[in-house]
Amino acid sequence: MSITLSNLTKRYNNHLVVNNVSLDVTDGEFFVLLGSSGSGKTTVLKMIAGLTPLDEGRILLHGRDVTAVPVQQRQVGFVFQHYALFQHMTVAQNIEFGLRIRKVAAAQRRRRRDELLELVGLTGLGGRMPSQISGGQQQRVALARALAHQPEVLLLDEPLGALDAKIRLELRRTLRSIQRELGVTTILVTHDQEEAFELADRVGVMSFGRLLEVGPPQHLYSAPQTEFVATFLGTANLLVGQQTAEGVRIGQVDFSLAERPSSMNGNHRVQVLFRPEDVVLSARAEDLPYPSLGQGEVAETIFAGSFERLRLRLPPMPGVRPISPPVKYGGDAMMVEAMRSREQAAALPLQPGDRTWLGVRRVHPLDHPGLNFLLVSDGSPQADAAVKLGGQMARLAHARVTLLGYGQPQSGLDDYLRSAKKMMGNGLTGLETKAASGALLPAIAREINGQPYDLIVLGLDPNEHMDTVEQILQMGDHHLLLASRPSAAPARALICVADGEPAKEDVLFAGRLVRHVGAEATLLSVMKDGETEATQSQVDRFLAAGVRTLELLGVPARAAVRKGAVRETIANELISGNYDMLVMGAPLPQRDGKISLNGLISQILGIIHRPILIIRTEPGSALH
Q1: Residues 446 and 472: beta-carbon distance below 8 Å
Q2: pLDDT per residue as tens digits for the range 91-125
Q3: Which of 274, 231, 218 is closest to 36 using CA atoms?
Q4: 5, 86, 569, 603: least buried by Cβ within 10 Å?
């Protein structure tokens, strides 16, 4: 292998930026690391180059361990996004710079410089200064400079990101041509999917420091294994369906699979992917050559040059939950993305409001991962109550569970985790136990830095540990379920909301969790005495939209508006309605990132002795 990365790990201020990344890149391969900003891809590149030290792991280049080798001795060429040319040097001098510091003879430097100027299409421009050439030409100079000393490995850090679209397209072709001609092993990092598809022999997709999937771009696009990759690589229609003996079922529609993934067994729920180009439209159901999802209404058409994009609205399908396009708050329909050629559009012209039948040519199943729960326990009775409840809900939700023990000597923790695993019983999608040394907050911080969780379940009494609850909410994007007394999985949930954008996120996550455990929900909004009819009307509309959202997710729901003091009204509603779980949204983080529960939530937590789900929302989070 030309490049071997073994368990690369990097932390900044205890934050895990690169998380146990292993990868083999073959000799002469053009490999692309693709991911959004902050995914860790540039840090991986800098570790390979020697610009950033590793915390853990090894790097081998052509079989040589270079983990502790200085930058200058790694035989690596590096091209930065912003060129990093020496502005006081000519183009020729920039290209020769690496050869000069390696004390290569002048005649040999000139010969190599002229070869590279011709290779990158800059013959005759060697005497110009960087300020006298265009951005695209400067990037060509940066590439020539990186190749001048004939590196064994070429590393490219978003080299085309600062250029306009036309120049990017030209340079992509130039870059691929040069790489093929020289046969140099290359790793490029980018967030541009089109760039990755055009350049890569193989693509690796990164998210939150993890390398999720690796494969040829065509395979990752058509047959991804994870929800993130399915929705990150291009537009995706992603629904939760059911496995069958022959394939998968979406609602009442069966799809056979030419090849059944080995991970599919039994009769479980699965995520079903189909791309916009897999959607076939017809004026009549009987003319569809593929299984039909039904008749939909055109919501939007978009002219995209050689093809047309459409967004279509379908009525809800029993037993089907849409993931992508995501559920729109207040929506009462599923959305499907379609794409067709100009010839197809001409044969069946469609405008917003028109109705058409939808068939699906091909589907691809993914394992349905459910949610990811972190159950935290010190072995106390309160913690055991939370573990039992979390285990019940995880079983119903098909959630993966990590049980984290803390606060005891190692031998005691091992014994407790074994007994807790037995207490939780069988039927969980996945259960992993971990023992943590030290106190609660550092233990949780270390664990969530290693992997993201949807929900943390704790047996804390909020009256005694309000500061701890606030700090746990501040650690990440997870939500928090507090349950310090024995209770069964909820059958009736009271979701308290106030009209506004953050409350939409409360409804969406609560709906997802409540649906999994088979509970019904009430959306409650408390108005103060004397508020205007206009305010009342606005609240009614918001709640009605919330009920539609929950029903689209498969949750029986109703709305309730009460007037009076908020704290007492919520407490009375909770008791009189015999609800067994309360859902509230945490206040938005302050400018310093801190979350304060002082006020209504702290008052409610102090008098309610039922499980309480606190939903965390980031400012400006994308709500659909």
Answers
A1: no
A2: 888 888 888 888 889 898 889 888 888 888 888 88
A3: 231
A4: 86
d(CA 566, CA 333): 33
Q: Across the chain, which distance is largest between two alpha carbons, in Å? A: 91
Distance CA 437, CA 58 (A): 27
136, 161 contact by CB (below 8 A): no
Give the model's pLDDT for residue 620.
43
What pLDDT band is residue 396 in, cutting at 50, 70 and 90?
confident
475 touches 402 (CB < 8 A): no
> What's the token pair of residue 517?
């455990």
Residues 6+ apart with CB under 8 A from 294: 314, 315, 317, 357, 358
Integer CA distances (angstroms), 387 to 483, 539, 615, in order: 9, 37, 19
Q: How many C-beta neighbours within 10 Å does residue 488 have?
A: 12
* Contacts (Cβ under 8 Å, ≥6 apart) of 286: none
pTM exceeds 0.85: no
Could you say which DSSP state residue 294 is in? E
Cα separation, 566 vs 166, whole angstroms: 58
Distances (CA, A) of 484 to 261, 291, 463: 42, 49, 11
Residues 202-217 have a mean pLDDT of 92
Supply φ then ψ for residue 49, to 5 degrees. -75, -20
What's the burial of 479, exposed, middle or buried (CB within 10 Å: 0-12/13-18/19+)? buried
The DSSP element (H or E) to which 222 belongs, if any, is helix 217-222
Measured CA to CA in angstroms, residue 406 lies from 418, 444, 455 at distances of 14, 9, 18
Q: State the CB neighbour count (10 A cutoff) for residue 36.
A: 13
- How many CB atoms lie under 10 A from the CB of residue 27? 12
Tokens 């009189």 found at? 576
